[in-house]
Amino acid sequence: MTSVTHDHHHAPASPSGLRKLTAPGWYRVLWTTPLVGFIGLGIVGLIRWAADWDPIWKSGPLATVGTVSFPMGLLIGLGGFDFWTYYASGKRTRPDSHDGHGATSWRDYFRINTDHKVIGIQYTVTTMLFFVISGFMALLFRAELAQSGDQYFNPQTFNVLVTEHAILMILLVIIPAFAGLGNIVIPLMIGAADMAFPKLNALSYWLLPIAGVTFIAGMFAPGGGPSAGWTCYAPLCAHQPMGNIFFNMAVQWGGASSIMTALNFLVTIITMRAPGMTFWRMPLLVWANFSTSLLVVLATPFIAGSQFFVLFDRVMHTNFFEAAGGGYVLGYQHIFWFYSHPAVYIMLLPGFGIISEVIAVMSRKPIFGYRLMALSLLAILVLGFSVWAHHMYVAGMAGWLRVPMMASTLLIAVPTGIKIFSWIATMWNGKINFNTPMLWATGFIATFVIGGLSGVWLGAVSIDIPVSSTYFIVAHIHYVLFGGSVFTIFTGIYYWYPKVTGRMYNEKLGKLHFWMTFIGFNATFFPMHYLGTQGMPRRVADYAPRFQELNAFASIASYLLGASTALFLFNMIWSWTKGEVVGSNPWRAMTLEWQVSSPPPTFNFDEVPQIVGGPYEFGVPGARHAILGSAQAEPVATGGH
Amino acid sequence: MSAAAEAHEHHGPPPIHYSSRINPAVLGIFLFIGSEIMLFGSFFTAYFFDRIVANPAQWPPLNEAGVPFERPWFLALINTLILVTSSFTIHWATVSCKKGNRAGLQAGMVLTFLLGLTFLLTQVIEYHRIGFNTNDTAFAATFFGLTGLHGCHVFIGLLILLVITIRAFRGHFSPSAHHGLEVGGIYWHFVDVMWIVVYVTVYVL
């Protein structure tokens, strides 16, 4: 395999015959997955036999090890570890080989690919697939909730659907969608040819579908799926059907993927910036991903820990959170929220970066308060670690802890407010172009302000206590994560679509998608504030008849959301081949990714660009962001390739 | 890095411009260690909750026979010394490599690997004879949790040491190019330092 010549830009010459089974790829996956998978299960049996434990084949340990060993077999088959194996055994490796770069056919998206642009597309398409899957789950349980009484699902199945919807939306859609968009644009924006660790990048993408498939497999595990809610509170979670083991392990895969990507982003941003690209000249999207990645690297291990503990409590019968054995039950919630509150910012800060890009470009004005925009990201990052227990006001924790948590929660509204007002000030007197990305960006500000304000209310102990575990919480998190994060993801997808594909999406369909989503979203979730204050509890399949009308209304509106997503997918797929071909810089933006062709060349830049100014100096006479090498001296807004 | 610019009809990427003096691999391993410290942090947090916040009558608690669980602190102390020694031997190997002394590099790596292996095997035997199991109260949970998590890191560290040792015998690493050795060494030092914290917390306090 090492002897293959450097025929880069094309997949290594397809092997034939038996070589097909040994070369990295899906043929090798066919035998490595069962081989490694069953070896893992065999080791479990061997240990249990040697230790004289009965029964030798026990479902808990088998599921735990199987959810590691089968995916490892898949990764080995795909060739995720080939480079490191050669490197480790001292064989000749191909330093900086580029044969894994670029994509010439759809097949190249289904293998280990080291090109950050290909990985970005892999990420984004995967997340959209899971967006459809988990959105469909939501439509299913909205059908159940359209009427009071039991119609389609029993409470167990209902809870499985709710749990899976939430965890997939968080770990398989929002967080990796930002990783995908970041992968595509960060190296371009800072003037690098690729990420710092391309092979690690390829590997971290492939952990994502593994996490997703494991989550979904958990639904069909013998005994039943995970139904303890996405928070998976101990000790409930440790006494769930076996599907919960799949849930715990899938969180580990997703978490590992997210840590590896964040680490890669950080090293790339710190060490690979083009000359002249100081931290104060970086586009705000890069700043946003820089802060997010710090959060991911430091906080994600805590969710890994929390899932390990409940898994141990179940499989190894430990007593981390079992009161009967001297464990501390609330310890789980503290450890869990110490990740999962910062996770809220992991799901928002990159979106803030996207919004900053789009608002400055579409308003044709320098971003208002650039440095404060960057510093407020860091302020959110630091404060984000100090608010976790506001999720636990009614959990029975020490009463005095509520007050400092309330204070720090309210404090977070300050840096967030700085960002909102800076965006508005950027638009003020701007020459605003209300195209699809800008519609999404402004729509985001409207919905996110509602979600942010209800967050401030919930931060106050006296308001939080009566509405805890009601639909008010459901309304709040959807205003923050759908009206916030998902709106920014759509903003980013529309904004960079012409860069990634070289073609423009259909503007009319894009606008229709926005209005359908905006109306459908508000109609679905706004009534839930009222339902919550009236006392409708969350996570129940049935409810009192007095909540009937608004629930029916929300269910009908949610189907409008489903239809709008279908429209979006059609627009994306259709425009990819049939859309109007546009030049390299349709938005007349100044950041580096728009100064190269669309789609960008394999190595982004022919020469390392020289950065000479800020990224948003619109309307400033003579201002330039970067000087590119002669080969790319292509005037702005003329045709690309 | 750019040495691989293959002479072909197609040019590769432009030479990489590094905006920081720190090597990407070294920065990467430091960030990874930061993440690892937080993972240990979550285990220490669980320990803290089970020991302080849940407020048991005494620590270690009483076992079924009515006496406190026995922690083999002396054996673990000897094991600690073994692991700390291995930190010095890998440092010796790195210094030898930088001076171009291959025999020193090879001997240092072999010694480090054997010391690490001794530590891990001692821990396995300790688990076997310790007299309590994972299901014996929250004390046992945190004991096996922290030492087990650390044991996993020693195992991963041993794999890395094995790789470095093989490469040292294959003639890799030179006074000017030894990032693989350095990065592995940083990780191994981290494993050692973390053990001292784990030891003091779990066996002594």
Automatic annotation (TrEMBL), chain A:
Gene3D superfamilies: Cytochrome c oxidase-like, subunit I domain (1.20.210.10). One of its GO terms (molecular function) is cytochrome-c oxidase activity. This is Unannotated protein. It is a multi-pass membrane protein. One of its GO terms (cellular component) is membrane. PROSITE patterns: COX1, COX1_CUB. InterPro entries: Cyt_c_oxase-like_su1_dom, Cyt_c_oxase-like_su1_sf, Cyt_C_Oxase_1, Cyt_c_Oxase_su1_BS. The chain crosses the membrane at residues 29-50, 62-84, 121-141, 166-190, 202-221, 250-272, 284-304, 336-360, 372-393, 405-426, 438-459, 471-497, 509-530, 550-570. The keyword Oxidoreductase does not apply. The keyword Nuclease does not apply. Pfam families: COX1. It is found in: Membrane. Keywords: Membrane, Transmembrane, Transmembrane helix. Residues 106-612 form the Cytochrome oxidase subunit I profile domain. One of its GO terms (biological process) is aerobic respiration. PANTHER family: CYTOCHROME C OXIDASE SUBUNIT 1 (PTHR10422).
Automatic annotation (TrEMBL), chain B:
Keywords: Cell membrane, Membrane, Transmembrane, Transmembrane helix. It is found in: Cell membrane. Residues 1-205 form the Heme-copper oxidase subunit III family profile domain. GO terms for cellular component: plasma membrane. CDD domains: Cyt_c_Oxidase_III. The chain crosses the membrane at residues 25-49, 73-93, 105-125, 137-164, 185-204. One of its GO terms (molecular function) is cytochrome-c oxidase activity. The keyword Membrane applies. It is a multi-pass membrane protein. Its main location: membrane. Belongs to the cytochrome c oxidase subunit 3 family. This is Unannotated protein. It comes from freshwater metagenome.
